[in-house]
Design goal:
Blueprint (H helix, E strand, L loop, with lengths): L20 H21 L7 E7 L8 E6 L38 H21 L10 H28 L1 H13 L21 H22 L5 H39 L12 H17 L7 H9 L20 E7 L5 E7 L4 H26 L24 E2 L5 E2 L1 H7 L7 H10 L30 E2 L2
Helix pairs in contact: 1-3, 1-4, 2-3, 2-4, 3-4, 3-6, 5-6, 5-7, 5-9, 6-9
The structure holds benzoyl coenzyme A.
The site of benzoyl coenzyme A (BYC) has 25 residues, from helix 2, helix 5 and helix 8.
């Protein structure tokens, strides 16, 4: 196993695919189906070529190659982080045993389920973002969208490789299903809620890449701990690519806040709609929506699924090796968010393994808070008193302990009627969405930017903002 990818193969890889002809043939026969899916469900605006990075090695230095590539010719490949032959399982009942190169029979179904759920999100996000190219605020942003899209396609390949290589016939069937389900479909929707929502405008795209891709970061971080070594290694490398996706979200929202703040100060008004920008109240509603649907992606506050995954060694905790406990949690307990018996929001004590979704969600929430601080600093340095905030953990939840109650952003339980009356103040309304969409006109001239967003501080890969990142024809 080398760190460099072999690009002479039909499917670039660093897993020695040519040594296993059966697997190679199986994946080569999945490849045209992937391309058919990409043509039908991938970016609807295929430009001549795009300045893209392509993974060429998994080594720390110089893992990516930058060039103009027609998107359909992007070389989607299979790259696993370097193998550590002495790697030991770091948690659960098998802690201290050698990591697995194969799938143990008793954990087959659970591992397959985790890989299928992870795999399902990747093409889903490409589908959700399919039409955004037509309204990009700049060539720089258009490039970033396409980079995210091709890499989510590669992450699908990462999971499909595991299904084909380690799960036989049913793995191949699951790989086919990943191309059959589709985001928002009534007959065969994507598995997790957030991946059936729409991403119809660029504000949604930045919110998605900030909040929903960040769930990806945390879930991949827990799967990177997995005793199943190929899953661990594939997630490790995916995380490297994922960092860019979150940068797109973080700086995207920075730039929207910056532009709004600029116009608020310049015109001494909160209502920047007359100036073609997005009001802070609308930003807050989009934030509330994307944050709350992303909180749902962590599953229930208590879960026997997650307890089983942890005890079996399939899915660890975020930064497992930094935790100061026995990494088995057989007799530990923790407090999780809950609806108390008196119907109030509170906490309850449960066995720690049962509460691991809450543990991960809390890590995620702390990370999300850092983004909000960052945006608030932009408002502060513009001299504005307004602030953005994360709504309460129970707000707008459809999964877990709070799925059956309606809760205000500041954590008050309210009746369904009151929710219906007041929700337009907290979540984007049709009017808000229509307004945001009305701003989405393409600005595809080199060095130009739409009026509702500030230009980025830096270009990509050391290139300036006004670089011609995309050749449209
Ligand atoms: N929507 O025991 P529970 C990414 C289901 S994002 C619909 O509480 P568990 C990316 C659940 O499946 C990262 N259904 O949950 C980002 C279960 O169903 P069954 C994706 C949901 O299993 C942007 C039932 O409710 N990766 O990479 O402990 C762009 C009871 O659930 C939802 C992963 O998620 C929901 N939101 O935890 C591109 C990692 N939540 O078994 C990519 C793999 C729960 O009763 N997945 N349900 O039929 C997992 O680790 C876990 O399955 C979950 C759920 C965290 C998703």
């Amino acid at each position: 196993m080398t760190t460099a990818a072999d690009y002479s193969e039909k499917i670039p890889n660093n897993v020695g695919l040519h040594e296993d002809r059966r697997l190679q043939r199986a994946l080569e026969s999945w490849q045209p189906d992937f391309l058919t899916w990409w043509d039908a469900m991938g970016p609807a605006l295929p430009p001549r070529d795009v300045y893209l990075r392509t993974a060429v090695s998994v080594h720390r230095d110089g893992w990516a190659h930058w060039d103009f590539v027609p998107m359909r010719d992007y070389r989607w490949g299979i790259f696993l982080a370097e193998r550590d032959p002495g790697r030991m399982i770091g948690f659960g009942a098998h802690k201290g045993e050698p990591a697995w190169d194969k799938v143990p029979g008793e954990y087959r179904a659970d591992l397959r389920r985790l890989i299928v759920i992870q795999g399902d999100t990747e093409p889903a996000s490409v589908e959700q973002q399919r039409f955004l190219g037509a309204t990009a605020p700049s060539l720089y942003d258009l490039r970033n969208l396409f980079q995210v899209n091709v890499e989510e396609g590669r992450h699908l390949w990462a999971m499909v490789y595991l299904l084909h290589a380690y799960f036989g016939r049913d793995g191949r069937d699951e790989a086919d299903e990943l191309l059959r389900r589709s985001s928002g479909s009534l007959e065969s929707p994507r598995i997790l809620g957030a991946f059936n929502e729409q991403t119809p405008d660029w504000l949604s795209f930045y919110m998605f890449t900030y909040f929903t891709d960040r769930d990806g970061k945390y879930q991949l971080g827990t799967l990177k701990e997995s005793a199943f070594d190929p899953l661990s290694r594939t997630c490790e490398f995916m995380l490297k690519e994922e960092a860019h996706h979150m940068m797109v979200g973080t700086t995207g929202i920075d730039r929207v806040v910056e532009r709004t703040a600029q116009l608020m100060v310049e015109h001494d008004t909160d209502d920047v709609t007359g100036h073609g920008a997005i009001p802070l109240t609308t930003l807050q509603k989009y934030l509330n929506f994307h944050y709350s649907v992303s909180l749902d992606l962590f599953g229930g506050e208590t879960s026997t699924n997650v307890a089983n995954y942890y005890s079996a060694g399939l899915k660890g905790r975020w930064m497992e090796d930094r935790r100061r406990d026995d990494h088995k949690l057989t007799s530990d307990s923790m407090l999780v968010d809950a609806l108390n018996e008196d119907g109030q929001l509170g906490q309850t004590e449960v066995a720690a393994v049962i509460g691991l979704n809450t543990d991960l969600r809390r890590e995620y929430i702390a990370d999300c808070a850092s983004g909000v601080n960052r945006w608030n600093k932009i408002l502060e340095s513009a001299g504005l008193p307004q602030r953005l905030q994360l709504p309460h953990v129970a707000f707008n939840r459809r999964v877990g302990a709070f799925a059956r109650v309606e809760v205000t952003p500041d954590g008050q339980i309210i009746s369904d009627d009151e929710w219906e009356r007041r929700k337009s103040a907290w979540l984007p309304t049709d009017v808000d969405k229509t307004y945001v969409r009305s701003l989405m006109r393409p600005v595809l001239e080199r060095g130009k930017i739409a009026a509702w967003i500030a230009p980025p501080r830096h270009g990509i890969n050391g290139m300036p903002f006004d670089y011609e990142y995309v050749h449209l024809d």
